[in-house]
């Protein structure tokens, strides 16, 4: 299923581990907070994306299915 | 004028003017509001009927209605003047919404600084039946721009903390006391109370574009104030209603601090209504129309607004705390013509990076404002980077904020 990376902006403290693990999809702004590339996570990066989610020290990153996002909007 | 008056209306006068509330079923109410095409007046312009339907589907009779009269937008006065003049119409709208979505409890959330509105609604509630008094209560919203953001309003009622929360869950899924909650601007509710009485056709027949609404006109006009307009009235009509322009004006802020700058000459014939404005890439937002005096600098006016928005951050999300305040500080250097190298480029880059990166839409609102400033004041921004100004030879105080 198509998934997107979502950041809980209130939890995120800008540790930056996600950008280290997944520079293809996540870059950091000038203050170290993540900028997530638009669109769904491509299959070949799915494993790394899961790793980034698991390794976030404040559990601020998650993978959400596209349908859930559509509903939210 | 249905929504404007000099004094708070008593229940007797209210009933005399508008008649009793019709007894409509939930389905009939939602259908009527939906057919009217009424869009929310808090700023986002979400279709009211669809919002009621969404909460109704989740409520099982235990939903909550939160009538939002926080009105933290500095240039907007329409909600407080509506509540001060037509408190019973707002209460009617909240009661109808409660009937439509299946809610028992009603919260009237009113900005603490809106003294006349608070007094009027309190007095109006005291005139209502014991049943209604038992269901509805007033909660005073703390001052601040974000207090009226819907998740912040729910958070304040639940925990005394008027800062936005992470969504999902959205209030319509889990809001006040964990119940599905309809958060609806007070003007939207008052209009729904008129539509329920007079039918959707009454509403869609009003004006050239179907509908009425409240706007707050301010800045370089002779009589700043709140006006009830029929949709399709032009920007020029609004300026005339406000006593005409005071001097000359080239730029107008439409929609409020989250809205955008537009050129006065180009938009003089703009029909002021949600659809016409969206078609031109503008938004009616919360109905703010602020004319900038010709001798005021647009860069400086924008800088003041951005500084205000940065100061009003709930300081929860990194991009808003650091990014928005950096933009504000840099804009201020530009506005005062004491920039550092690359300041304008920084503002442009940071603005694009800020979009969509907050728990609430506070940073997004600032992005909309900044983008419009970069378009309309592009030449002047470039001049400011060169320590010059196209408008004024020395810094002037601007009437914004």
**Integer tally of domains of chain B:** 3
First-to-last CA distance of chain B: 29 Å
* Strand adjacency order, main sheet of chain A: 1-4
Tell me the name of the CATH class of the largest domain in chain B. Alpha Beta
The CATH class assignment of chain A is Alpha Beta
Walk me through what this model shows:
The complex is a heterodimer of chains A (73) and B (401). Chain A has a single domain, classed as Alpha-Beta Plaits, CATH 3.30.70. Chain A is built from 3 helices and 4 strands; from the N terminus they run E-H-E-E-H-E-H. Chain A has helices spanning 17-21, 46-55, 66-72, and strands spanning 3-7, 26-28, 34-36, 61-65. Chain A has a two-stranded antiparallel sheet with strand order 1-4. A two-stranded antiparallel sheet of chain A has the order 2-3. The radius of gyration of chain A is 12 Å and the shape is globular. In chain B, a hairpin with a 5-residue loop joins strand 5 and strand 6. Chain B is globular. The model of chain B has no long low-confidence stretch (mean pLDDT 95). The A-B interface holds A 7-14, 29-33, 35, 68, 72 and B 165-168, 170, 316-320, 322-323, 326, 350, 353, 357-359.
Give the SSE layout:
The complex is a heterodimer of chains A (73) and B (401).
Chain A: E1 3-7, H1 17-21, E2 26-28, E3 34-36, H2 46-55, E4 61-65, H3 66-72
Antiparallel strand pairs in A: 1-4, 2-3
Chain B: H1 11-18, H2 26-36, H3 48-59, E1 63-69, H4 78-85, H5 87-101, E2 103-111, H6 115-126, H7 130-135, E3 136-141, H8 150-159, E4 181-185, H9 186-198, H10 200-204, E5 212-219, E6 225-230, H11 235-241, E7 249-254, E8 260-263, H12 264-267, H13 274-279, E9 288-293, H14 298-311, H15 318-335, H16 343-354, H17 362-376, H18 378-385
Parallel strand pairs in B: 1-2, 1-4, 2-3, 5-9
Antiparallel strand pairs in B: 5-6, 7-8, 7-9
Helix pairs in contact in B: 2-3, 2-5, 4-5, 4-6, 5-9, 14-15, 14-17, 15-16, 16-17
